[in-house]
Automatic annotation (TrEMBL), chain A:
<keyword id="KW-0813">Transport</keyword>
<protein>
    <submittedName>
        <fullName>ATP-binding cassette domain-containing protein</fullName>
    </submittedName>
</protein>
<dbReference type="InterPro" id="IPR027417">
    <property type="entry name" value="P-loop_NTPase"/>
</dbReference>
<dbReference type="InterPro" id="IPR003439">
    <property type="entry name" value="ABC_transporter-like_ATP-bd"/>
</dbReference>
<feature type="domain" description="ABC transporter">
    <location>
        <begin position="8"/>
        <end position="245"/>
    </location>
</feature>
<dbReference type="GO" id="GO:0005524">
    <property type="term" value="F:ATP binding"/>
</dbReference>
<dbReference type="InterPro" id="IPR050107">
    <property type="entry name" value="ABC_carbohydrate_import_ATPase"/>
</dbReference>
<keyword id="KW-0547">Nucleotide-binding</keyword>
<keyword id="KW-0762">Sugar transport</keyword>
Automatic annotation (TrEMBL), chain B:
<feature type="transmembrane region" description="Helical">
    <location>
        <begin position="35"/>
        <end position="57"/>
    </location>
</feature>
<comment type="function">
    <text>Part of the binding-protein-dependent transport system for D-xylose. Probably responsible for the translocation of the substrate across the membrane.</text>
</comment>
<keyword id="KW-0997">Cell inner membrane</keyword>
<feature type="transmembrane region" description="Helical">
    <location>
        <begin position="192"/>
        <end position="215"/>
    </location>
</feature>
<keyword id="KW-0472">Membrane</keyword>
<feature type="transmembrane region" description="Helical">
    <location>
        <begin position="277"/>
        <end position="301"/>
    </location>
</feature>
<dbReference type="Pfam" id="PF02653">
    <property type="entry name" value="BPD_transp_2"/>
</dbReference>
<feature type="transmembrane region" description="Helical">
    <location>
        <begin position="334"/>
        <end position="353"/>
    </location>
</feature>
<feature type="transmembrane region" description="Helical">
    <location>
        <begin position="236"/>
        <end position="257"/>
    </location>
</feature>
Amino acid sequence: MAENTPLVEMKNISIAFGGIHAVEDVSIDLHAGEVVALVGHNGAGKSTLIKILSGAYTRDAGTILVNGKEAQISNPRDAKKYGIETIYQTLALADNVDAAANLFLGRELMTTWGTLDDVAMESETRKVMGRLNPRFQRFKEPVSRLSGGQRQSVAIARAIYFDARILIMDEPTAALGPQETAQVSDLVRQLKQEGIGIFLISHDIHDVFDLADRVVVMKNGQVVGTARPGEVTEDDVLGMIILGKCPPGAVPGPGALQMAA
Amino acid sequence: MTDVKSEAASQGAGAAAESAPARFLKATELDTRMLGMLGALAVIWIGFHLLSGGLFLTPRNLWNLSVQSASVAIMSTGMVLVIVTRNIDLSVGSLLGFVGMVMGVTQAEFLPDLLGFGHPATWIIALAAGALLGALIGALQGFIIAYMGVPAFIVTLGGLLVWRGAAWWVTSGRTVAPMDATFRLMGGGPDGAIGAFWSWVVGIVACVALVLMLVHGRRQRRKFNFPLRPLWAEGFLATVGCALILGAIAVANSYPWPSGIVRRYFQAQGLPVPEDAFIAHGIAIPVLIAIGVGVIMTFLANRTRFGRYVFAIGGNPEAAELAGINTRWVVMKIFILMGVLATIAAAISTARLNAATNALGTLDELLVIAAAVIGGTSLGGGVGTIAGAMIGAVLMQSLASGMILLGVDTPLQNIVVGAVLVIAVWLDTVYRKRVKK
Ligand SMILES: Nc1ncnc2c1ncn2[C@@H]1O[C@H](COP(=O)(O)OP(=O)(O)O)[C@@H](O)[C@H]1O
Ligand SMILES: [Mg+2]
């Protein structure tokens, strides 16, 4: 396999809701073992863009390539077949059932009789949760009773359990304290080591500079530019987010402020 | 290993502070809500028994109560799934009427012309035709709700009118009777009950199944090192469960056939009629059907993917969709299932009446919804149990029967049932708020 074939390539993606162009002509790519951060103001279109990749939304235009081949993604099941797993900003948990039922939702373990194997699912859940959140004990309770951090770890467990090759994390640390946030950072590094490609959406520029290989800045549904943390400063990236101004070290996108010069 | 230890330790620490009833509930893992309902049922039963001067808790009344509850109980199991997914079905009563009418015409007019009167396959053909029709109507309503996006309330409100009208259309409002002799067994009565011997067999099989389930559950937990129930709690559950099952059988078996039927029974065999002949009814066939439906529906809800998806959709439809569940198809399947259950209820109702009438099942949708809601199904979605709804159906029927026994006028009966429904849901709301804290 060619070293430079990206794991995922999204080309010229557009989607509009009513009259709002939530995502407009966006192209991004991601390589194996790479962390690409998506940053931008609220409403910039980050969640919408990754929801197209995860199959939650159907794009109006554009193509998605996985390993260089065009991928047919029209619902979440399709995306999972390509090894794309997602931690949604809203977590997307069924509040009324327990952690194990959520972790295996849509991919339940079954007994030889064709019935749900709840005991096996709980046992597996205990193993993954033991890795992510060793003090977690509330396996029998509906997830609505769990704390924000515990719910977050259930959502993360669900994404990493099924051997994802492409992981999408939409603000995975929003509900977490500093210690748990550091844990997630460690997890991101570890998954990167394992060769998984990660799209990371975050508001924390420090974290982004710490973890990402590339940073893609979005504004008003468009890409302002792409930069490597070593080649630009945090202030440069803030300038991109706020003003849409692309600094010299970054590759400008269609959304970059056109300098009248 | 450490998991189990720490959990056991925390349990041990907590136990000292807990009261005896709390400890008991924790050890047996019984659902307090369900216990509350059984308690309410007991209060109602004992209350009516005292008020009626000892007429309520008799084998005869309890046996009739069980038969009268069967049809609503069967439909309430499907209504649980409908409501759990944040839908509603207002059409079940009319659906029952229409399917019942079609089954009636099939067996009383259509098949006799085709196969000859009293053909042994009549009942099963009529039932199969009804089930097919029920499933098709359910599929149609489910399709409009799930795929065309029309709210269930509107679709089934339309269905309430459409199917009642359709029932009238089949015979221009004429009542169809009598039903096929075998078909009639589904309605209960002295013939439509399985007798003392088979009732004991059913009871013993049920007890054995209960014990095996407890043993299997314990084995599974041990295999995966999960915390176990204390042995005394397991023993308690087995003993009380079996006692309740066998007690119910004993009641069904102490309700005798009326003396006229006993006399005819012996005369038909050319035997002399014994002086003190006692032939017990045993469990009524409609009750057996209802129990069978309850077991299958509980299995569907708790042990299959379908059931898991039903609850997940109810908890968070968006999350279910994002998890890759084909939520529309699941919703459509629920309405198909509801159609089939309405057919079974229709068979029982027509068989019991020995006729198909245009008014059959009128207002049943409200009883069915009330049974599900009293039984703990939350209209907000995501919460409900099959067993709860069935107990809810028995509770509603107990109120109705008890008031008839006391000679309460029909309008007052409606007022009481309506008030009880509202109070029950209010109590449930209060209970849930307290549990959350
Ligand atoms: N399902 C939807 N229907 C209508 N508008 C939407 C929908 N999802 C997102 N949008 C709009 O698209 C824009 C981008 O939102 P989003 O992708 O959530 O931004 P971000 O994740 O970057 O904060 C916003 O203007 C939002 O209101
Ligand atoms: Mg977002």
